[in-house]
Write a structure and sequence with these properties.
little secondary structure, Herpes Virus-1, 3-stranded antiparallel sheet, 3 strands, disordered C terminus, Urease, DUF1272
Length: 89
């Protein structure tokens, strides 16, 4: 099940579970659409994977399957050409 991380790892923008602006890679690194397109060119800076739109969990399922409260933020921010790093998931 997707964790539904609540923020963009680059700019810390809030990305609620129903956000259509959240993009993820196959490891669930999460970015807003602005950072994903303008800064990262659709590529995850952590694993090098493709960033795709995160699916929306139906509201009725959130009570028993809540989104993560853990905010993940790259302390140095994101820049084009960031070194790819291994991310513990």
């Amino acid at each position: 099940m997707l964790a539904l991380t609540p923020n963009c790892e680059c700019c810390d923008r809030d990305l609620p579970p129903d956000s259509r602006d959240a993009l993820i890679c196959s490891f669930e690194c999460t970015f807003c659409s602005d950072c994903a397109s303008e800064t990262l060119s659709g590529i995850c800076p952590n694993c090098g994977g493709e960033l795709v739109r995160r699916p929306i969990r139906p509201a009725a399922k959130l009570e028993n399957n809540p989104p993560s409260l853990l905010r993940v933020l790259k302390a140095e921010g994101c820049a084009p050409g960031d070194d790819q790093a291994t991310r513990a998931t």
